[in-house]
Batch of 4 targets.
Target 1
Amino acid sequence: MKAVIMAGGYATRLWPITKTKAKPLLPVGKRKIIDFIYEKLLPFDFEIFVSTNLRFAEDFREWAKDKKVEIVVEDTTREEEKLGAVKALSEITKDMNDDILVVAGDNIFSFTLESFVRKFEEERKPLIALYDVKDKELAKRYGVAVMDGERIVEFYEKPEKPLTTLVGIGIYALPEKVVKMLPEYVRDERKDNLGDFVSWLVSREEVLGHVFNDNWFDVGNPDSYIEAFKCYTESYIAEDVEIDETSKVIEPVVIEEGVEVKERSIIGPFAYIGKNCVIENSDISESVVFEDVVLRKVKLWRSIVDEKCEIRNLELSSSIIGGHAKIQRGE
């Protein structure tokens, strides 16, 4: 069996942050989103492939330097050019003669995959990971499964009126026979996401579902990213961080190298501060601040600030600030 991490999207719901950063490489504490997936795959000793695009290829190659993965790059640099998940998967697997385990690159989950892989090996049928979101309004955002025992009898991608709250969570085990069906699906120019492929497959093959019950986060928007960050952050403060005696750090936080915290600032809980930031007379919690940012007299809550920004005299809540922005309110 081979494993494929799908990381080729452009994450438009997290723009402008993800215009310059691949979503799977965003920090969650000291680790990246994709690290959580990679670590869950390591126990199996599978050959691991990461599917990405040309825009972020070098970033993934840098991430992969100390890891046992192969980076596969589709020749796109914009949302409008992307192949889509099924076409990308079809390209990656066209020369593979093996079963595959597919994992979406923006998933963070606390459960292991041992029971999922074991069930697939016992049944030898396509197996889809499911999670009960317990809310039909929330289920509208995902692929929704209707079950008969362990079998998925219907699967609807982002339905207007979900019949259940069991949703697909971007983890699929596909036998070689089904992998060979991907080009057929692509040839017919059908909707090119894996949820619609599952809908198509359910009408042709016996497809099983496997329900997980532990923590799962689909990092599709700023709120879910912050919630995942809160759940998985472990404290780290670099040795050279300067925190003056008037300031306070409330863990858990991650504060990278070269940061200065001064003049009655409060950092945390649940804050990420990137390298070489200057935080002065500011309060930052449940937020992610990338490198080389200057914050003076700023209150930041549940927000994301991209690199090389300078913000003064401002309160920001549930905001995303793009890179190199300069924002100042008068004294």
Target 2
Amino acid sequence: MAHDIDVTPAFNASGLGVSEFDRLVRLVYEGIGEPVPWTRLLEFLLRPLGANYVSLILRPPAPDLPWRVVFAGEAQPVIAATYESFFYAMDPFVNLPADRMVMVDEVINEADWLKSAIYQEFLKPLNIRYYMGADLGGGDDAICRLRVSRPIGSTPFGERERAICTLLLAHLKCAVRLRSLQDVTEAERSVYAGTLERLSIGAVILDKKGRVLKTNHAADEILAAKNGLSIVNGSLHAAYGSEHRELQRLINHAIAGTTDSGPGVVAAMSITRTAGHGNLGVLVRSAPLAEWSESANRPAAVVVIRDSESRVQASQTMMKRLYGLTPAESTLTLKLLDGLTVDEAAEELSISRNTARCQLRAIFAKTGVTRQTELLRQLLSGVIPLG
């Protein structure tokens, strides 16, 4: 059974007041959302710790990945880069006891430490004399590593400085894990958003009052044309009165959280555009609501927009990898995916019809189909549009 750790001794030894400690904890959790996480926290810690550097190693150096470290202090990038490429492998101040602040002289004899290559060639040029740190999580799987240093000519770290860091370790460990979860969510969102963009599908997220919170690039292009659908006073607006009223009804229905045709899906409708342009297909659905989440500007509805005239995005590289198509064959295939006939594609590509038909036969052989309709169905139903 887990037991809460009594932090009273550390708090008493830290010399911090309640307001100072409260600010430090807030900086830990506010740091999750900073562009370079925990920058303000590390900069704030310099003074109470009497440090010339405070750093947080979020990812140690690896053969296939650069290290990720947040610095506060006068770090010299040229010297710091040598740590990643050379000195990390010989650093004795690693794999510390989990979740505990440790002074360097508790790990290695002081004389040996001061004579070591990492101290003489890396730390000393950075004006580092005294050193303490903690590995959060411990061992090779530590989720991050906190390091604090003082300059040459200063005094060693004491129990007060150790106590200040100790008070933050559990909070910092929790915050780093929360940041990792946020990164996973962002990566997942980016994958889905990228897929919609590749398919030229517009997505518009609305709040509880039907106001536009966010749009993707495909939606921006459709709405910027102001042909059938646009944004007016922060809300979606259909050009024709009857369609606008129906669109608003569907949006309000979605915001209310009811469904007609499946989980989260309210309905679909068609938006008329000017002559010569096909209609826009619109799907309106309720936005998923987390059980414990509620705010005034939370996403409440999602409007998905499909332009029947939009072109499938596909790359020649993808077609070469999947089917071995040559650049010329890939270019012809892209024209067919855009809806052109073979003769129209030949004219646009400035090649003869016979050349285009020879290329098409080669494409059939490589993709294993015998007709153009089969080719298009195979390409559109596969991963080509997602690449």
Target 3
Amino acid sequence: MNLGKKLTAEFLGTFWLVLGGCGSAVLAANFGGDGNPLGIGFVGVALAFGLTVLTGAYAFGHISGGHFNPAVSFGLWAGGRFPTRELLPYIVAQVLGGLVAGFILMQIAKGNADFNNNPLAAGNFASNGYGALSPGGYTVAAAFLCEVVLTAFFLIVIMGSTHPRAPAGFAPIAIGLALTLIHLISIPVTNTSVNPARSTAVAFFAGSGAVSQLWLFWVAPILGGLIGGMAYKWLGRED
């Protein structure tokens, strides 16, 4: 597959992840107010992120590998599954796809007269944060550790489920369920990133608070991805 098609697939897959996952948080999580049975809530947002990765992987995985996440690209590179020459182009395509989705989501959200884009609110516009911008008020150290560990295990699941000896055709299901579980664990801590492109996609529309904390949601997931990729490279090697 030529690189242009791979990058287009990564752009579209990341677009879909941000529109579906962050869109569910912005538009549907609290629809009608607290306690309204039509709002999808915490669990619904977690499922939405998992479903976007599951469906995106089936749609685009055979073209680009279905990374949709710079931390995944770094992790697969560290695990010996991805070439160095494609790393930067993939990351650029992922970030651009996410930003376009963030822009479109903002235009949709502004169509509601009650939409309030408060840059000082935790989780504003589905953004990630720590301290005052953490949904549960978690510290920067807790947020950093959470993002590193969960991203590392995400890579382990990705590499294990796509191993040649794993059951064929089921990898997107395992990966989507893993991302759902990750959100169920960490939405209260950071609003769940494990994906620098997803964090960047909404931070620049959420305001100065999210932008000032964006560094953590690049450094921690990429570090976690590298750890997970290297760990599985060792674990899966047949000695």
Target 4
Amino acid sequence: MQNIVVHIPHKGKESTVLNSKQTWNQPNQEWCAKQYAHLIIQEYRDRFPQAIALLEEGLEDSLQFLAFPHLDQRKISSTNSLERIHKEIRRRTRVVGIFPTTDSYLRLVTSYLIEYTEDWMSSKKYISSEAITEQQAELLKIA
């Protein structure tokens, strides 16, 4: 969404953003979300051609989270957890400054990721393992 908003003038941002955000709030990928996105595309194509071109290009990818109904869609549609991991890696590597070798950098990053994984597996779960297991079982039924 941020990439699209960059190509919209300040005057038209508020209404355009509010309308286009509704695309990702639709309950069903195949029907509602895609249909709503096409309505937005038709409405704003002439006013904001660059923004609409980006929307059309990334629409399928941006709606993939709707294919997982058993998982909390707010969590899997966001990149917040990934951004948090990157921020923590940057913080830890900034303390060291210059690494003597690439292997030392990889050891530091790997040790943090192992620690993060252990925390996720034991207590601090962003998405519960039960929800993931349930989603996997449903996917196996379909395949």
